[in-house]
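Review form for a predicted model. The reviewer records the input and the model, then writes brief findings.
Reviewer: anonymous (R2)
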Amino acid sequence: MASTTSTTAPGAEGVLQFQPLQSTVDSTFWMELANNKLEKYRLSEEPCTLQGYYTPARSSAVSAPLQLTSTSLALDGDAPSAAPGGPQPYIAWGSLYNVNTLDRFKSFDRERIMAKASEEIWCDIRSGAACANPALLNRFVVYTFADLKRYSFYYWFAFPALVPPAPMRAAQIGSLDAALGADLAAAVVQASESWRGACTDATPAPAWLVWLPGTNRSSEITASPLTDWAALQERDGEVILAFCDPCNLPSNPGWPLRNLLLLAAAQWGSRAVRVVCAREKAGRLDPTFSLMVDAVLPEVPAAWPAAADHPPSQEVEDPAAVPAMAVPKTLGWEVNARGRMGPRCVDLGPTMDPTQLATQAVDLNLKLMRWRVLPELNTEMLAATKCLLLGSGTLGCAVARTLQGWGFRHITMVDNGKVSYSNPVRQSLFEFEDCKNGGRPKAEAAAERLKAIFPGVKAAGEQLHIPMPGHNVSPQEEGAVMRDVARLEELVLEHDAVFMLMDTRESRWLPTVLCAHHEKIGINCALGFDGYVVMRHGHGLSKSTDDVAEGVGEASCSSAPRLGCYFCNDVVAPIDSTRDRTLDQQCTVTRPGLAPIAGALAVELLVTLLHHPQGDKAAADTASSEASPESPLGLVPHQIRGSIAHLNQLLIHGPAFKQCTACSPQVVQEWRTDSQRLVMRACNEPKYLEDLTGLTAMHTEVDSAMEAWGDEDENSDEDDF
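Model under review:
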């Protein structure tokens, strides 16, 4: 609270009282502190440097506070950062101690950190550093606890003021123009304004000297830095101390004058000094609002040490380890909103935009993982990775929710079906209302639910039919089918990773071709009744047509062969698997716990792959592999095959098949030559893909070899007989 006295009458001396400095913290500071806590400080409680900003008092109704904003933490070494908008403010240097728990905040040894700040101020006074940089006199301390789950911040400020051995007294206090006369006061203000404007530093010094000529009244009044004190004493005239005064009271100076007067007594040996308390109106120093104080100072005893062994601004690992030094007693802990000694608390949760609050909370778990367990986790990369989910059913819902848990922000759902009454209990993104009136489109409903769960996600739903080998396309349907093909290719191009989560095997064929052609990450996930397979496709083939034609791309930049895709184990082309199916064969009949397990593994495989330095070209790890130090999240397998009936899991791998009907160079080359011909013939001609890739010739060779082997057996039997 402000301390007030009446104006001291001329010739009388009263104890000089100062209005305490008050703090104000912008919400942007707390947001920056929260971000720094998660990204930089983590579990560290080491002090960090702050910049506070204040101005001269500009209104008779209120004093100017010390302000913290987001720029207060944006420091590069000791270089001043950008100040808040408006007239250039003055800088006060501070130390921030951010602790990890509320109990630690309550028991924090605040007297120790106050003693450290006081020691630094005293050292700067005795060494003369404060004359060169008066901002060092205005150091402050704040210790905080950030409750990032609730966005509540506890804090306590201190503005250390060294207590002299005897009270400072005021012989007289009054307005500047009343003390000097209107003309002389205006000249003092003009000299101060000129000096401030001529300062080349990023911010002006908060204290300076004004020289008034003595007998030679024709000399010009000048302002200069505190380092000129000794030189000005040699000149004929009067030297006046001036400072930026944040106080608005008519009878009291502001808190920064306390340490400044102690400097005058300790460094210059002054016992009396005149002080201009510079205040502003309309953006300029005002002689009627500014004060003149005739201060009487005590003698500073020589017994106070210079503390030269502890240089200014030196930080220590543990403030509690700093020994108590024989420095002047210190005051300055700020009172709380009730006017009592104690900390303050600001709760930003209710005032924050709910979407922004959700965004911060969603990322909290991921950023906490980096504190102790996974410092290499790249949350920004995950948030920027765009995922395309082909299939919005049981697997699609499971994968989408796990992607959200990992902080992915771009998710596109694709499906051609509608929500049925059997879906909501197994598919977590749907509800009963989605089933009514024939059912909502699955992709659209799933995307809306993702945004309802977390509004910060960029989710979209697309109803799309994917052409499939073995599913005939009539001439009348060809145009619509090729439009779907073109749209699917656009979606693959727009995304970084493609999840294949459909019900049928053949529906995965075209996305596999597109991933191989456009070199996109392909993740395949398929379910049986009690088993599952999760796999990543081998990296895409080179986009050079000649390279593909020659088979280039079958080996990665390492010695490991290119890994196979979902179809690389097949020796026949995919066919229509829905024809002549019973009800249990038409539906995905699987144990309910299988999809969440497989969906989670599919996402974990993608996250691990994204963090591997070789990306989708990473060699396949097996169960016997040791986690590479290059892979911060552990093993990066090719295939994960598991069974919940036996509660087991296998990591297997296989190279790309040169005659694969989906990812082989022959198929990719045909797509690049004539995509429409490839799709139409694959749909309408069951043997086309086998002929294209050489599987037909391979079957013929195998049949011939088997016949020859049989003939040899028959001849051998005859000979034996």
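Findings: Residues 361-541+589-652 form a domain with the Rossmann fold fold (CATH 3.40.50.720).
Further findings: The chain has a mean pLDDT of 85.
Recommendation: see findings above.
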